[in-house]
Amino acid sequence: WSRLGPRWAAVLTHSVASHLAVSTPRELFPVKELPLDMAPDAFDDEYRGCAEAMEAELAELNRTEMAGNAVYAEAWAGAAARWGEGRPGAPRPPALRPVQELAILAYTMQGPLHGAFNAAVREAGRSRCRYLDAFPFKTFHFLLSTGLRALRDAGPRLCRRVYRGVRGVRFAARLGRPVRFGHFASASLRNGSAWRFGQDTFFSVETCCGVAIGGFSFFPEEEEVLIPPSESFEVTGVARAGGRVLIELRSQGSRSTYNCAFLQGEASASHRRPHPLLRLGGAVQPPPFWEMLISSPLPPRSRGPGAVGMLAR
């Protein structure tokens, strides 16, 4: 995979040439080069075994965070207003509480919340003290994490093939290495939808922990799947062509450093939980992914001023 054969080279050359023909000025700006690794500084708490105790702390904690975090407060108010006008469409599983649904809706709305939140998630796991003292999204992280788990547990246990496009960053990955995104990473069930959001790095991902949230999103047409920070992957494919990086990942289950960090004195030992389908050999076989890359030009998509869509989530 790290060396393209003639068939892959032909497919990628055709695809990249098509998209370079319609590159926007933004796409021609300098692109950062970053390593794709296990994101050791990410805050990856899954709140297993402490959800009820955590909920007892939420009321006061949420008031404090809302008062000091205008980005969070405004996004929550916008999501609540939209939710009050009528739910987006998918029936809500009984285990998913309205407040968790609101958190998912707030995450997907246009605005700065998802960017600010994920930037904080990527750094908050440096230490428990940093999480307690400098992470202003404790309530939101809890509600989003437990909401995703409620949705995941409500349906069949599936591994999915999803796609994620990133603009402005070319990731360096090594075959066979374990990696994590280290934040809540948005992907799409449709490779075309993901390609519109960015082509500097394009991921084909088998996720077993990611959750389809299209029915609870401001933008259901994106068919979004949200991957939690704790899911780890093996790098199974890497290719470069025309300044683009193409990476294929296969789920290795959940791997987290923290559990119930708000309530416990110290961070827990690293937890690794293979997904049941991985234990049973039910992993998703990838389609001929590189041949599925869109060959027709697709203009960049915008959600309005300041909107960046999945490329930044």
UniProtKB/TrEMBL annotation:
GO-annotated molecular function: NAD+ poly-ADP-ribosyltransferase activity; NAD+-protein-arginine ADP-ribosyltransferase activity; nucleotidyltransferase activity
GO terms of biological process kind: response to antibiotic
Database matches in Gene3D superfamilies: Toxin ADP-ribosyltransferase, Chain A, domain 1 (3.90.176.10)
Reactions performed catalytically: L-arginyl-[protein] + NAD(+) = N(omega)-(ADP-D-ribosyl)-L-arginyl-[protein] + nicotinamide + H(+)
Annotated keywords: Disulfide bond, Glycosyltransferase, NAD, NADP, Nucleotidyltransferase, Signal, Transferase
Origin superkingdom: Eukaryota
Enzyme class per UniProt: transferase
Recorded GO CC terms: cytolytic granule; extracellular space
InterPro entries in the cross-refs: ADP-ribosyltransferase_ARG, ART
EC number: 2.4.2.31
Stored PANTHER family: ADP-RIBOSYLTRANSFERASE, GPI-LINKED NAD(P)(+)--ARGININE ADP-RIBOSYLTRANSFERASE 1
Family: Belongs to the Arg-specific ADP-ribosyltransferase family.
Name listed for the protein in its UniProt record: NAD(P)(+)--arginine ADP-ribosyltransferase
Organism encoding this protein: Dromaius novaehollandiae
